Amino acid sequence: MTYDPKKLCQSTKSALVVMDMQNDFVADKGAFSLAGFDVKPYQKLEPIIYEMIVSARQNHIPIIFVAMSHNEQNDGDGAWKQRRIENGHPNSCREETWGSHLYGRLKPDKDDAFFFKWRYSAFVNEQFDTYLQGHKIETLIFAGINTNTCVESTMREAHMRIIMFY
């Protein structure tokens, strides 16, 4: 099968997933920038992802926003906490803070879906999977950051559930 994204989006029940484009990860005054991480490459993605959102809306492709959310109950111990400490990751995306809000123009409309997650994969939130099944989504188109962790973890789990992704 030749890869043709336009044909693919028209021939299957697709959804655009915008992952982790939050102030703490992307903004100049976000937790990662303040901790010394270079967020400029992430900021360059905002206009591209915004155009993807506009195109998806024009073509009636569902849009799913997924955002990290940390609080005292889901911070975790053991390997999760240790990895964050060893990598110098700041305490980010705290529930109901400016840092947890979506960055720039990347905001959901009333018809878009929005899910929080507290680990890498969006599937930790059972409502994400329920939404996909309820809307008979067959293909996920991913946009966002942390492709080596959060996007990849969600893609891998989608594959295990027989959902295509790009």
Automatic annotation (TrEMBL):
Highest taxon of source = Bacteria
Q: Which UniProt keywords apply?
A: Hydrolase
Isochorismatase-like domain location: 14-161
Concerning InterPro entries, the annotation shows: Isochorismatase-like_dom (IPR000868), Isochorismatase-like_hydrls (IPR050272), Isochorismatase-like_sf (IPR036380)
In the UniProt record, does the keyword Hydrolase occur?
yes
One MF annotation (Gene Ontology) recorded for this entry: hydrolase activity
Family indicated by similarity:
Belongs to the isochorismatase family.
Which protein, by its recorded name, is this? Amidohydrolase RutB
Q: Which organism is it from?
A: Halalkalibacter wakoensis JCM 9140
